[in-house]
């Protein structure tokens, strides 16, 4: 098993999540992206909000995290986008697939 990262991002709309996912894929910063609808409860402006959002999970390598953060912030509608890096281990077969996709130009 080898290390990879998941980048967990919440988005206001499915369209925004898809836009960011396509941007990351075309830039070869991620190998895969998943989008899920969620109900989110969170603090904002001193009150608890209850909204529907979309979670975007990007699968990548640690070396790409800073570039991913920069591009997400440039293309996200939130003042403070949730961008969380999660360290994970990948099966060698999937890791090799990801590395190959991230190195193709």
Question: Would you write up a description of this structure?
Answer:
The protein has a four-stranded antiparallel β-sheet, covered by helices on one side. The protein is elongated. The protein has a single domain (2-103), classed as Alpha-Beta Plaits (2-Layer Sandwich). Helix 1 crosses helix 2 (65-75). It is an alpha+beta fold and 105 residues long. The chain has helices spanning 14-26, 65-75, 92-103; strands at 2-11, 32-44, 47-60, 83-90. The model has no long low-confidence stretch (mean pLDDT 95). It starts with a strand and ends with a helix.
> What is the H-and-E element order?
EHEEHEH
> Briefly, what CATH class?
Alpha Beta
Strand composition percent: 35-45%
Structural class: alpha+beta
Q: What is the global morphology? A: elongated
The major β-sheet equals: 4 strands, antiparallel
Low-confidence stretches: none
The counted number of beta strands is: 4
Return the average pLDDT rounded to an integer. Answer: 95
Determine Rg (CA atoms, Å): 14 Å
Order of strands, widest sheet: 2-3-1-4
The CATH topology annotation reads as Alpha-Beta Plaits
* N- and C-termini, Cα separation: 26 Å
At a glance:
The chain has 3 helices and 4 strands; from the N terminus they run βαββαβα. With 105 residues, the chain is an alpha+beta fold. A hairpin with a 2-residue loop joins β2 and β3.
């Amino acid at each position: 098993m080898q290390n990879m990262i998941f980048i967990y991002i919440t988005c206001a709309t499915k369209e925004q999540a898809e836009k960011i996912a396509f941007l990351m894929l075309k830039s070869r910063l991620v190998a895969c992206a998943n989008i899920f609808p969620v109900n989110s409860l969170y603090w904002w402006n001193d009150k608890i909000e209850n909204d529907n959002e979309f979670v975007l999970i990007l699968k990548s390598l640690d070396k790409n995290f800073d570039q991913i953060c920069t591009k997400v912030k440039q293309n996200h509608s939130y003042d403070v986008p949730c961008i969380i890096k999660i360290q994970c281990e990948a099966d060698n077969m999937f890791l090799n697939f990801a590395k190959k996709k991230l190195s193709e130009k």
